[in-house]
Specification:
Layout (H helix, E strand, L loop, with lengths): L3 E6 L5 H12 L3 H9 L14 E7 L5 E2 L5 E2 L3 E2 L8 E3 L2 H6 L7 E2 L6 H7 L4 E2 L5 E4 L2 E4 L2 H15 L2 H10 L18
Parallel strand pairs: 1-2, 1-6, 2-5, 7-8
Antiparallel strand pairs: 3-4, 9-10
InterPro entries: Class_I_gatase-like, INH-QAR
Organism: Aspergillus leporis
Keywords: Glutamine amidotransferase, Transferase
């Protein structure tokens, strides 16, 4: 099976918007889980069930991008050179600019919802959930909600042993769309 190709659009963002989800996904990867197995941090067969995932940090050009906390990152590929992706991490307001969210349910940082409704009135903006899924689009209401959203994806798409290990490694208990703590899979 081919690796999952996961892209991150490199624009100025709040660091945790990307660092949290990427760290969570990385904690599910085979290479990371193999290290954890060797150090006896996870059970022996966990790594074999881990994700085969590649990350692409996609920029308009290969120049540093400034984020919050004075963090600078360097894209690893450009929009023109990037291979086809399975997933792309992009902010909901940027995605709304493309028109792809028109007629769909979505959310954004709830502080920005009034602005989002004015700028993109064809999007059905949701203010009652921490994250919203509509077809292939997943949108979150902020950096921590985004991490919760990715944890939900991990629990849906990874072996339960991998999901449990990745959350344990991060000492992280995710919340559901209504901010209630989720039960971590045990098998």
């Amino acid at each position: 099976m081919s690796p999952i190709r996961f892209g991150i659009l490199m624009v100025p963002y709040q660091t945790l918007d990307v660092a949290g989800p990427v760290d969570l996904l990385s904690s599910c990867s085979r290479p990371y889980l193999e290290v954890m197995e060797r150090e006896s941090q996870v059970s022996k067969d966990t790594a074999a069930a881990g994700l085969d995932i590649e990350f692409y940090y996609v920029g308009g050009e290969l120049k540093p991008v400034q984020h919050t906390g004075n963090l600078q990152t360097l894209p690893t590929t450009t929009c023109d050179a990037c291979p086809p992706l399975d997933y792309l991490l992009i902010g909901a307001l940027l995605l709304a600019q493309t028109g792809l969210l028109n007629g769909r349910n979505a959310t954004v940082n709830h502080v920005l919802l009034p602005q989002a409704r004015v700028l993109y009135p064809k999007v059905h903006w949701n203010d009652s959930q921490q994250w919203v899924t509509d077809g292939c689009f997943w949108t979150a209401s902020g950096a921590c909600a985004g991490m919760d959203m990715f944890a939900h994806w991990v629990m849906e798409n990874c072996h339960p042993q991998v999901a449990k290990a990745s959350l344990m490694i991060l000492d992280y208990t995710p919340r559901d769309i209504h901010r209630q703590h989720l039960t971590i899979p045990t098998q």
